Amino acid sequence: MKKHLISLTLYLFFICSIHSAIAQTTQKPRFKAIAIAEIGGGHALFDVAAKVWLNKLAADSNFTIDYISDTKSINKDFLKQYQLFIQLDYPPYPWEKDAQDAFEDYIKNGRGGWIGFHHPTLLGVFDGYPMWQWYSGFMGDIEFKRHIPGGTAAKLTVEDSANPVMKGIPVSFTTKDEWYIYNKSPRENVHVLASIDETSYNPPKDVKMGDHPVIWTNEHVKAKNIYIAMGHFPELFDDGNYTTLVRNAIFWAIRKNQEVKIQDKVRE
Fold first, then answer.
1. Pick from 123, 35, 11: nearest CA to 86
2. In terms of DSSP H, where are the helices of the chain?
3. Which of 48, 186, 222, 268 could disulfide-pair with 110, CB 3.0 to 4.6 Å?
4. What's the helix, strand, coil split of the chain in %, to 5?
5. CB 256 within 8 A of CB 222
6. Alpha-carbon gap, residue 55 to 86, rounded angstroms
7. How far apart are CA 35 and CA 116, in angstroms?
8. 168 — alpha (psi -120 to 50), left (phi > 0) or beta?
């Protein structure tokens, strides 16, 4: 009798283990992300490295991520599938009109979170496309003027260490990128999380802006959002500070919508 009980116990344990394993492999993803990235161009190597890193994070953290290379498929129904929109070095042009309208709705009404890397602030008139005025407002009412070709290293200073996106990031650290220069600082229209000290450029460069934010969030829309200026070099994904920043940004951006401060700061 005792032998039968032991056998039955082992059998039930085996069955439960199988069911547990099946449940884990079929567990519903925590969220779905869509990432848009250019094919080719000067940012191709960064985008490839980003995809490798993001795919591993998605597998390890139980979320799914899809990729597109243009805006043709973007509309309101398409975006309903996703809780996070990642803009990997994709500029604010050329966007289909339906895609623009859907994206604005997604951000203004908090349909999901957003993270943009580097290229989203290439704002102006490019390749015959007019500047997307709403997007300029979303990025802090700025316009792109120039950049540092080839890049340079610079010291970043964290301005809001209490923000969850900056958790685990040192108060100051050095990184390299092709820093963008705008017609003005976006500071008065966004909440700055980190800025660079232009006197720390190594090698020194004359391309400067003065007050130079490089990581920020716009608190005048419902969607949680983070812009990260660094996004040119694939080696960024070998930098622990950078990967910590990106990981933090992803899991912060999918949380509950933020309280909107002054909506008209982002132009209609």
1. 35
2. 2-25, 44-61, 76-79, 97-108, 133-138, 240-253
3. 222
4. 35, 25, 40
5. no
6. 13
7. 10
8. left
pTM of the model: 0.87
For the record, the structure tokens of 89 come out as 């070095």
Rounded Cα–Cα distance for residues 164 and 253 (Å): 10
DSSP 228: E
Domains of the chain: 30-142+182-195+210-265 (3.40.50.880)
Tokens of 19: 């069911």
Q: Hey, what amino acid is at 56?
A: K
Region class of 40: left (phi > 0), else alpha (psi between -120 and 50), else beta: left
Backbone φ and ψ of 80, nearest 5°: -60, -25
Q: Please name the residue that has the structure tokens 């970043």.
A: 156
- Amino acid identity for residue 228 in this structure: I
All residues at 6 or more sequence positions from 256 whose CB lies less than 8 Å from its CB, including other chains = none
Per-residue pLDDT of the chain (268 residues; tens, 9 = 90+): 444 444 444 344 444 444 433 333 468 899 999 999 988 777 889 999 999 999 999 999 999 999 999 999 999 999 999 999 999 989 999 999 999 999 999 999 999 999 999 999 999 999 889 999 999 999 999 999 999 999 999 999 999 999 999 999 999 999 999 999 999 999 999 999 999 999 999 999 999 999 999 999 999 999 999 999 999 999 999 999 999 999 999 999 998 766 666 554 555 4
- In this structure, the number of other CB atoms found within 10 A of the CB of residue 87 comes to 21
Between CA 220 and CA 34 the distance in angstroms is 23
